[in-house]
Amino acid sequence: MKRNRLTLTRMALGSLRGQKKRYFALASGIFLAVFFATALVLASASLGKTMLDDYRARMGEQDIALLDAEATEEEILQTGIAQRMGTIEVFGEIAASPEADAARVAFGRYDETAAALAHPACLEGRMPQSAGEIALEASAMSRLRLAAEVGDTVTLYFYPLMGRNQFASEPVTRTFTLTGILAEKASHLEISRVTSEMHYTRFPAALASEAEEIEPGSLPARHLLLELARPLTEAQMDETIPGLYHLYDYQISLDPALLDEVLPVLLAIGVVALSLLFASGMGIVNAFAANLAERSVQIGMMRAVGATRRQIRRIFGREALLLALLCAPAAIALSCLAVALLLRLLDQGALYAPPALLLTALAFSVLCVMLAAAIPLRRAGRVSPMQAIRDTQFLRAARRARVKSQKRFRVESL
């Protein structure tokens, strides 16, 4: 007959089955601590991811834009500073009227990589795909006072760029098919360092396809969008990057007023998370210490039959580990569900819970539980067999007790 080997895990599981009521409070404390701590972390990560996604949708993924760059793409790539690079060509400006004082907007195109970096998005329709097609930002249509819908044919007056800040004196009449209405992008890309009078540094609010032909004799401006291969200091950028450039930085681009609102909230979340972590740790310490105190006789009997202090700590530590492994995954799963529902109700984006973050939360939760249980486990290991077996509390009470004699009979009744 095969005998099952008695291991620490088997002993811990048997103890958990036999002491369900005693371990319920400890398991509840571990579950709630992991739930609230993970929920706060997931909520913060999800809100941060939502803000980053909004920034990238508005500004793009590029780190730097070289304005009217004279260097070729090959020369920039040879420096090793960029891992992705796209080109934006600015052909000139277009107007809805040939009058000299008519409003104009920049007209150009993105190549495939530049479009992948900047994320120009259509509110209606689609992006231009063939020559003679055009897509306009909604704000550009408003400035041009162009009353047209997707699919309409529009006549525009094109002023080709003949050099830096030099446009053709007479416009060229062009007819386009309006294929899409775009979300705001050009004004977001034009951020600082450059004055509004430098027209050749502007970004196009009217987009053509890559098949659009360049006007003969014109000299389009060429902006390069760079995604850096590594972070650069300002001195390195001034040394490596020639000419004018825009620097796009997620931290710098945040609105100061928004930061004033967000930072106190993040600070409050951090304080609450640390408070919950400390309170849950103390709760686990007290609950585990109370459980070990109630089992002092069991500890004494184990010490009496030869169990060492290390074995005592390992046996009861295994119980704490099993509790953590049972409670933490369930708490993390429930926190994901709760945060997802909360974000959906508040319309604050979607849950951001990458596997690396969940695994880190699980490992950190188990580590915190084991650290909290280590304090009472060290005390339990120091108890001697005789001290654990005898009822110390009753012995101390008996020593303090005093016998008070009383008369139980009357002499005259004898």
Question: How would you explain this protein's 3D organization?
Answer:
The chain folds into two domains: 8-54 and 257-397, no CATH class; 64-247, no CATH class. It has a six-stranded mixed β-barrel with strand order 2-3-9-5-8-6. It has 414 residues and is of the alpha+beta class. The model is unreliable at 250-255 (pLDDT under 50). The longest helix is centred in the N-terminal third of the chain and has 40 residues, at 20-59. It has helices spanning 8-18, 20-59, 73-78, 112-118, 138-144, 186-189, 234-240, 250-253, 256-294, 296-304, 309-346, 355-381, 385-389, 392-400; strands at 64-66, 82-95, 104-110, 122-125, 133-137, 153-163, 166-167, 172-182, 206-208, 221-228, 245-247. The N and C termini lie far apart (75 Å). 51% of the residues lie in helices and 17% in strands.
